[in-house]
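ugh finaly. both done.
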Amino acid sequence: MKLKGKPRKARLVGNLLLLASLLLLLLQGTFLNLSDAGMAAVAVLAFALLIAAALVFLLFWCCPCCGRGLPGTLGLEYCPRCGGAVTESKKGFFCENRECRFVLWKDSKFFTAKKKTLTKSVAAALLNKGRVKLTGCYSEKTGKIYDATVVLEDDGARANYKLVFDHG
């Protein structure tokens, strides 16, 4: 998902929500002549605006130094090679940095041999943690079903996968 311009607009919306809630709280006691029920209603509205502003800031948070968002926020994941944003397309998950050429293919032979698909959640776990637990993998040799952890190994030229088994 491309977020160009969205964090800036979201910060503006968050700041406006924060400002509106603070104005409501300030005006409540000084300029508005309200009954106790009216003051309680205005306080609840101001509190709801504060919560909305906090949610906007959390969903669209960006580091002030590098401008990166939080991993996993709105589907935004980062390339393990260059740190660029990784976006989903019809055929796979690609780094937006064209020189990097990092890709996780959805029709990878590794996953199709195990009768699994590279879903968005599996790709996100591989990009964030470097590993993901898969259950119900199919063995071509034995025809049995097994559980294993898939580890992402990137040598700089291509992304490979390795299986790790928990025998405990």
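ok and the 2nd:
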Amino acid sequence: MLFVNHNLARVVEIDTHGPEIRDSILCGTILYNQIIIEPPMDKGGQIPRHPKEPVVRAAFARVLADLRGHAGLTQAEVGEKSGYEEKYIGALERRKHTPTLTAVIQISKAVSVSPLDTLNRVLELLPKFAHLETKASLTDPMDRKT
């Protein structure tokens, strides 16, 4: 029997044929009675949840940097005007985080641009970053070929 606790990034394997319990600091997923070992999820969502997430991150990072530059604002100023920390704005520009819808709206307002314009600019850039799309996750049963 296998118990997976993703919150703690631990896999606990219980030997049903004896009292031995093995505990490892790994993150895994049960898939058809197999364990697929994955790297632990870093804080801040470093592992994409969707194959297109790196594409969206890259396109938004470019748009954000361009809009911020045209507005003549620093990361700290955009953070202050949008209600986010400078660190978060920098992480968005370095592709470390995927922005929430709230972030897109608030950051757009901070640089005096319509959120729709921001999203349209992101959409226009997606093909340029399409090469960053990740392969389908092996841990998703729908993605596996039988």
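summary for the 2nd one i guess: Strands lie at 2-5, 10-14, 21-24, 27-31, 34-38.
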